[in-house]
Structures are given as structure tokens and as C-alpha cells.
Amino acid sequence: MRDDPIALQLPWLKPAIERMPDKPVVLRITGLTKWFGDVCVLDGIDLEMREGEVLGLIGPGGVGKTVLVKICCGLLEPDAGEIEILGQILSELKEKQRQLLRERVGLVFQNYALFDFMTVGENVAFPMRQRGGSSPEEIAAKVQERLSEVDLPKVGNLMPNELSGGMKKRVGLARANINDPELIFFDDPTAGLDPVTSSKIFHLIRKTQSHRNSTCLVISHDIDRMRPACDRYILLYEGKVHFSGNEGEAMRATDPIVCEFFRRDEGKK
Q1: Inter-residue contact 233 to 247 (CB < 8 Å)
Q2: Do 10 and 224 form a contact (C-beta atoms < 8 A)?
Q3: Residue 104 CB: number of other CB atoms within 10 A?
Q4: How, if at all, do strands 25-36 and 39-50 pair?
Q5: Rounded CA gap, 139 and 229, in Å?
């Protein structure tokens, strides 16, 4: 990993281990295939994630990264393949079972997806209210705790349109963590943000993951900023897994596609 001043000061920002063979599998994808008309977007994808891992999912635009996440979340149906999440085969679950599974999974959207008619606090509380079983006092305390974790302790009564883009991203992170999910999907969480704010978002992702031992899949084009957060990477290219490995393996690779993504700045020095 490249030296990062913030990561060096905060050891929990560094991936603790590069391989996790002794950890239980949280997400297993086998032969995942998805067509849109005559275009095969995902062509037999195999992917596995273990408990506590932060996986960076990278690749060119339009390669199917978001499609893969939507299929895992049950928002799209695959044309072939099998998805196992938290020990359950997604295709075998009825709607009620899928709903219960979704409560164990968090999702941070690229476009914030905050309800503009709700306050920030109400947005963060929404998944917890939907799940039920908690008193208003418990919900309020949890909302305040999650907002404080993303360094926004005083914005609960504001409306989303009063926040900057970076603040909205952090609110999305707080909402995704409100139910203490075991698995969290991040769909390009730093899109449209400046480099400094992007770094802060990735540091928060690693911090919250470390505190709860959650498993995270992060889609991003900003590989330099996501380096301190990720244990491993999957590179999708032309519908297939083109590379799977940690940063050291990526930096040693001679494959031109892998080099383009991980070493694109070296030729400018």
C-alpha cells in the first residue's frame, strides 16, 4: 500500500489482513450472467467475499458494476447464476424472506437517495422504523449516534437541500449503518466529490467497517482514494472478472488492462 499520512496516523484505516481463508463467506456469486437485449453485461461472474473484508469493485463505465449490486440486492433478476448472501440462496427465498435478508444488508446510493421531504434525522431513521421493534427514544438515540460517527452530530433537524454533496454522502453512510448490517454495498460513494472529501468518505467507510466488522463491497472509479479502505479488488472488463487480488498483486501485474487502472499515473512522473 502506498504511504498515506492519514492511514499512517490511524492504523485502523489499513486493511488488517490481505487474505481471509478462515473467515466465513458472506457473499458468493457463481456464474452470474445478465443480458440487456443483445448485450451480455455480466458473463459468468464468479466472486466471493469473506466476513470483515472490504472489496473494491472497479472497471470501465458501463461494465456492469452497478448491475451486479442491483442483482445482489434483489432489484434486478439475473439470467443465469446463483447468489448466496449471508448463507442464503437468493433465488430460493420468498418475498418475506428476502425482506428479512434486506434488513441485514445496507446500501449507499451514488445519487444520495435521500427523501427531500424528510429531515436528515428522519432519513437516517427510516430503515430502523421500517424494521420496527424499537421505541422512538431508541431510534432517536441511534440516529444521533450514527450521525456523530460520520462527524455530523448537529444536522439531524436540517433538510437534505441544506447540506453539501459530501455531507449528503455521509448521511447516506449513517443511514446504511443504522440497522448494523452485516454486508454493505457502496455504489460509487464519492461520485462528484473533490479529492479531499472523497478521501474522507473512504476513511469513514473503513472506520465504520472496522468498528462493526461489517463486510463491504465498494464500487468506485477513484482507485487512488479508495486504496486505504480496500483489502482486495475485483476488476470487471468486458463482462468478466479480469483481475482479482490485493493492491500488491495489482501493482506487480504486467497485464496492460490491470496496469491501466492501478498504475495509470506512473507514466506522468
Answers
A1: yes
A2: no
A3: 15
A4: antiparallel
A5: 29
Question: Amino acid letter at 222?
Answer: D
Please state, in angstroms and as integers, the Cα–Cα distance from residue 127 to each residue in 106, 174, 175, 183, following that order. Answer: 9, 11, 7, 15
Q: Per the structure block, which three cell numbers stand in for 111?
A: 445519487
**Cβ-proximal residues to 251 (8 Å cutoff; 6+ apart), any chain:** 262, 263
Backbone torsions φ then ψ of 177, nearest 5 degrees:
-100, 0
Q: With the C-alpha atoms ordered 143, 148, 232, 53, is the resulting torsion angle positive or negative?
A: negative
Residues in CB range of 156: below 8 A, 6 or more apart: 119, 120, 121, 124, 143, 144, 147
Query: How many angstroms separate the CA atoms of 18 and 29, rounded?
Result: 20
pLDDT of residue 139: 96
pLDDT score recorded for residue 264? 67
Residues 6+ apart with CB under 8 A from 2: 227
Q: Which residue stretches of 150-264 are H helix?
A: 165-176, 195-212, 223-226, 247-252, 256-262
Mean pLDDT value across residues 77-94: 95
**Model pTM score:** 0.86
Contact partners, residue 136, CB within 8 Å, separation at least 6 = none
Alpha-carbon gap, residue 265 to 62, rounded angstroms: 23
| Contact by Cβ (8 Å): 53, 229 | no
In whole angstroms, how far apart are CA 157 and each of 123, 147, 263, 265? 10, 12, 44, 43
- Average pLDDT rounded to a whole number, residues 58-69: 93
